[in-house]
Specification:
The structure holds 2 protein chains of 2 kinds.
Chain A: H1 6-9, H2 13-34, H3 36-42, H4 55-61, H5 67-75, E1 89-94, E2 105-109, H6 110-115, H7 118-126, E3 134-137, H8 146-157, E4 160-163, H9 169-178, E5 183-186, H10 188-200, H11 205-208, E6 214-217, H12 224-234, E7 237-244, E8 249-253, E9 260-262, E10 268-270, E11 272-275, E12 280-285, E13 297-304, E14 315-324, E15 337-339, E16 344-345, E17 350-352, E18 355-357, H13 359-366, E19 371-380, E20 386-394, H14 406-418, E21 423-427, E22 442-445
Parallel strand pairs in A: 3-4, 3-5, 5-6, 6-7, 19-22, 20-21
Antiparallel strand pairs in A: 1-2, 7-8, 8-11, 9-10, 11-15, 12-13, 13-14, 14-15, 14-16, 17-18, 19-20
Helix pairs in contact in A: 2-3, 7-8, 9-10, 13-14
Chain B: H1 4-25, H2 31-49, E1 63-71, H3 75-85, E2 89-96, E3 101-107, E4 114-120, H4 125-133, E5 136-144, H5 147-156, E6 161-168, E7 171-176, E8 185-191, H6 202-206, E9 210-213, E10 216-219, H7 236-242
Parallel strand pairs in B: 1-4, 5-8
Antiparallel strand pairs in B: 1-5, 2-3, 3-4, 6-7, 7-8, 9-10
Classes of the chains: A alpha/beta, B alpha+beta.
Bound molecules: zinc ion (ZN).
Zinc ion (ZN) binds near residues 257 and 333 of chain A.
Chain lengths: ~450, ~240
C-alpha cells in the first residue's frame, strides 16, 4: 500500500480525531483572536472561544460563515478589501466572481504558500506515482487560481509537471506518449475528449502507454460506468480529488483503490474519497445545520486547520457530498470517508468547461423583452467537447425583422457575462414546454454523466 | 521510519535554530530575510505533517519546560558562571520595574530549556526570597500550547491554580501554588516563543539599557557608538571634532 505520510497514516482513528479536535479548537481561537473577518463576524454573536474544548463544542457553538459573509466583510474594508496592508501577505487569490455576487479575496502568507501543494501530494502518492514521474496538467491558468495550485501539488509530491495548457487535444495526446506520462490531471469532460481523440487516432493506451498509472479527476461529478470504461481504455486507475480556494488545496481524495470499483457481478460503483482530516476538518450537514448520518448527502462545511493569512472556520461550501462511515474504503487508513463521483452543487450552479455557471446569471442576460422563456442543454459534441445550446422563445407578435440579429447579440452577451459560448436557436412560444423550476430549464447530457447500474 | 516522538523533538530543535537565524536577521527584507521566512514556512508544514500543532512545542497537547528561574545576589558573577564557564548563550534580559529585578536569560546547545537569572534591585518578592533563602531555584516556567486545556488538566488533578492573567494575548499565564506542588513555584504560559534579542550583552543589561516590557526585552538606551572607523575613511570634520 503506498504511503504518503507514515505519521498521519499510522495514527489510529482516535489519535487522528484527537489531533483534529485540538487543531479545530485552536483554529477557532486563533481566528477569533487574530482574523479581522472572524473578529467582525463573531462580534455579532456571543461566542466564547476560551470555553470550547471539543469538536462537538465547535459544532454546537461556532456559527457557520458563507461566501456572502466574506463579501459583506470585504465591503467594510478600504478599497472593498482590495488593498490589505498586511506586510506578511505574499499573494492575493481572487475567486473568479462568475456567481455575480463579487470576487472573494484570499490573502496568502509565506506559510500558506509553503503548504499549498501538500494535500494534493497525498492524492498522487496514494495513486502510486513516485517522485520523478511526469504528470500532465490540462487545467488552464486562465480564469482561476487552479493552474498555480496544480504546479505546487507536483512540487510537493516531487512530480514533473508537463504543462499542457496550450495546444490542441492532438498535441496533448502526442505529449502523453512523448513524455511517457504517469498521470493526467483533468476534468472528467476533458478526459472524455482525450479518450475520443485517442480512439479516433487508433491508440490503445492500455497496452501502448504502459507508463500511465492514474487519471486524476476534479471539478465535476461523473458516472461510475463512465469512470469504469475510462479506466479500462487507458489501463489506469481513475482517481478523484476535491478542494477549493477555501481549503487551500485538496481536502478529499481517493487512495490506490481509485474512484470506481466493480461489484461481484461487474457492475461499476463509485468508490471512496478519504478526508485529509489532519489539514481540513470536513462536516457534512443537513440544511438545519445538523450532521447527516453515514450514507446520507449534505452540504460540505470546512474548517482549515493550518494557520493561514485567511483563516477558514466552518465555511459553507455550497457543494454537497454523500458521507460514508469511517473505514468504508477497506484500505485501513484512519480518515473520514465520502462517496467519490458525487460531489455537486447544493445550489443550481453548473460547471461548464471548468467555469462556474449559475442559471441566475444566464437568466439575467436572456430573460429580457422580447425573450419570454428559454431552454438550455449542456452536451458532449461528436469530438467530446462540452457544448451548450439554448433555445429562446419571443413574445407572441414580435415582428421577425426586429429581432433578426438577436441570437448573435445574445450569444455575445452570454459570453461576456458568464464566459461561455452558446449556440442560440429561436422557436415559437407555444413550442416551449412549461417548467415550474428554473433549474429545469437546463438539461445535462454530457457523456461523462453515464452512470453504472448501481449508481443512485 | 523514525519514531514520531523523536521526529517532533528534532523538529522543535530545528524550529528554534530557524528562529535564531531569523532573530539575527532582524527586519532584513533582503533575500536572506525572505529565505528565512520561507524556511520557517516549510518547517511549519513539516511540523504539522509530523503531528505537531506548534513546532515550538514537541509535546503536542502537553507542556514543555521553557526556563528555570534562579535568584542571585551578584548578577555579574552569575553571568560568568552560567555564561562563560557553563557555555550559555545570552538570549534575553533586562530590568523589570514592577518586580524590582534585573534578569539575564541563557540558552544552552542541545537543551530546550533556558536559565533565567534574577537579581533583585529593589525591595519586593524576589528580594524577600533572596533574604529568606539566600537565592537558588525560584520558579519553573512551562509553555502550554493551550493554557485553558493545560489548566483544566491541572485543576482536574486537584492542584490550585492562582493568578490567571490573560490580558495580553501573546503572553497568557497562571501559577500553581507552591503549597500544592511540594514547594516549587510553577508558572504555566501560553505564548509565543521569545526570539533572541539582537545585540544584547551582560554589560548593557547591567547598565540598564534593556527593559523587560510587554513580556519581552526592549532596548531603552541607544547602542554605544561603533568603534572608530579607520582614519583614512573618515571625513576630516569628524576627525577634527573628536580631537
Ligand atoms: Zn482507501
Amino acid at each position: 500500500m503506498p504511503v504518503a505520510n507514515p505519521v498521519v497514516e499510522g495514527m489510529d482513528e482516535a489519535e487522528l480525531l484527537g489531533f483534529v479536535s485540538r487543531a479545530a479548537v485552536a483554529a477557532v481561537r486563533r481566528a477569533a483572536a487574530t482574523s479581522p473577518l472572524y473578529r467582525w463576524f463573531y462580534a455579532r454573536t456571543d461566542l466564547r472561544p476560551e470555553r470550547l474544548r471539543t469538536l462537538d463544542d465547535v459544532r454546537r457553538h461556532v456559527p457557520m460563515v458563507t461566501k456572502r459573509d466574506l463579501l459583506d466583510f470585504q465591503r467594510t474594508l478600504p478599497g472593498g478589501g482590495a488593498t490589505p496592508a498586511d506586510p506578511s501577505v505574499r499573494q492575493l487569490h481572487l475567486t473568479s466572481g462568475t456567481s455575480g455576487a463579487g470576487r472573494e479575496i484570499y490573502p496568502r502568507d509565506a506559510r500558506d504558500l509553503a503548504g499549498l501543494g501538500i494535500p494534493g501530494a497525498y492524492e498522487y502518492l496514494w495513486a502510486g506515482l513516485a517522485p520523478g514521474d511526469r504528470l500532465m496538467l490540462t487545467i488552464p491558468y486562465s480564469q482561476t487560481m487552479a493552474g498555480p495550485y496544480f504546479q505546487e501539488t507536483c512540487a510537493a509530491a516531487g512530480l514533473v509537471p508537463v504543462n499542457a495548457f496550450a495546444g490542441s487535444t492532438a498535441d496533448r495526446l502526442r505529449d502523453l506518449y512523448r513524455f511517457a506520462c504517469a498521470g493526467i490531471s483533468a476534468t472528467p469532460s476533458y478526459v472524455h475528449r482525450l479518450t475520443l481523440e485517442a480512439r479516433a487516432a487508433g491508440r490503445r493506451p492500455a497496452t501502448d502507454l504502459p507508463s500511465l498509472k492514474a487519471i486524476f479527476l476534479s471539478g465535476e461529478p461523473y458516472g461510475a460506468a463512465w469512470a469504469h470504461d475510462t479506466a479500462a481504455f487507458w489501463g489506469a486507475t481513475v482517481c478523484e480529488g476535491w478542494g477549493a480556494t477555501q481549503t487551500l488545496g485538496v481536502a478529499m481524495c481517493t487512495c490506490e483503490r481509485g474512484a470506481v470499483t466493480a461489484d461481484g457481478d461487474g457492475t461499476p460503483r463509485h468508490a471512496v474519497l478519504h478526508g485529509l482530516d489532519h489539514r481540513c476538518w470536513i462536516e457534512v450537514l443537513n440544511p438545519d445545520g445538523s450532521p447527516v448520518a453515514p450514507g446520507e448527502t449534505g452540504e460540505i462545511v470546512v474548517t482549515l486547520l493550518r494557520p493561514s493569512a485567511q483563516p477558514v472556520v466552518r465555511f459553507r461550501m455550497a457543494d454537497k457530498v454523500r458521507l460514508l462511515a469511517r473505514g468504508s474504503c477497506g484500505c485501513g487508513r484512519p480518515t473520514s470517508c465520502y462517496a467519490a463521483g458525487t460531489i455537486g452543487r447544493v445550489d443550481d450552479m453548473m460547471k461548464i468547461r471548468g467555469m462556474n455557471v449559475w442559471p441566475d446569471a444566464i437568466d439575467a442576460v436572456l430573460l429580457r423583452s422580447p425573450v419570454v422563456d428559454y431552454r438550455g442543454r449542456v452536451y458532449s459534441d461528436e469530438r467530446g467537447r462540452e457544448a451548450v445550446d439554448v433555445t429562446i422563445a419571443f413574445a407572441a407578435g414580435t415582428p421577425p425583422e426586429s429581432v433578426a440579429d438577436l441570437p448573435s447579440r445574445l450569444r455575445q452577451a452570454v459570453k461576456q457575462a458568464v464566459g461561455i459560448s452558446v449556440d442560440i436557436a429561436v422557436v415559437e412560444p407555444g413550442q416551449m414546454p412549461e417548467e415550474q423550476f428554473k433549474s429545469r430549464r437546463w438539461r445535462d447530457e454530457r457523456a461523462v454523466r453515464a452512470v453504472g447500474v448501481a449508481d443512485g | 521510519m523514525a519514531d514520531a516522538g523523536e521526529l517532533r523533538a528534532a523538529t522543535a530543535d530545528a524550529w528554534r535554530a530557524v528562529e535564531r537565524i531569523r532573530a539575527h536577521l532582524g527586519d532584513d527584507r533582503g533575500v536572506l530575510g525572505v529565505l528565512g521566512e520561507r524556511i520557517a514556512g516549510l518547517l511549519g508544514e513539516f511540523a504539522w505533517e509530523v503531528g505537531m500543532l506548534d513546532p515550538a512545542d514537541p509535546g503536542g497537547p502537553g507542556t514543555r519546560l521553557d526556563h528555570v528561574g534562579i535568584v542571585v545576589r551578584d548578577l555579574r558573577a552569575a553571568a560568568t558562571l552560567y555564561g562563560d564557564l557553563l557555555g550559555g548563550t545570552l538570549v534575553a534580559g533586562g530590568g523589570h520595574a514592577g518586580m524590582g529585578i534585573r534578569s539575564l536569560h541563557y540558552s544552552y546547545a542541545g537543551a530546550g530549556a533556558k536559565v533565567e537569572l534574577l537579581q533583585p534591585v529593589r525591595p519586593g518578592p524576589v528580594a524577600r526570597f533572596l533574604e529568606a533563602r539566600g537565592g537558588g531555584l525560584h520558579h519553573l516556567t512551562f509553555f502550554a500550547a493551550d493554557l485553558t486545556a493545560a489548566l483544566d488538566g491541572l485543576t482536574g488533578a486537584g492542584l490550585t491554580v492562582v493568578d490567571v492573567d490573560r490580558r495580553a494575548p501573546e503572553w497568557q499565564e497562571a501559577y500553581l501554588s507552591p503549597r500544592g506542588t511540594q514547594g516549587c513555584l510553577i508558572q504555566v504560559v501560553q505564548g509565543a516563543d521569545l526570539a533572541p534579542a539582537a545585540g544584547i550583552t551582560v554589560d548593557s543589561v547591567l547598565r540598564d539599557e534593556w527593559e523587560w516590557r510587554d513580556h519581552r526585552p526592549r532596548r531603552v538606551t541607544a547602542a554605544p557608538p561603533n568603534p572608530p572607523a579607520p582614519a583614512a575613511t573618515e571625513a576630516p570634520a569628524a576627525t577634527e571634532a573628536r580631537r
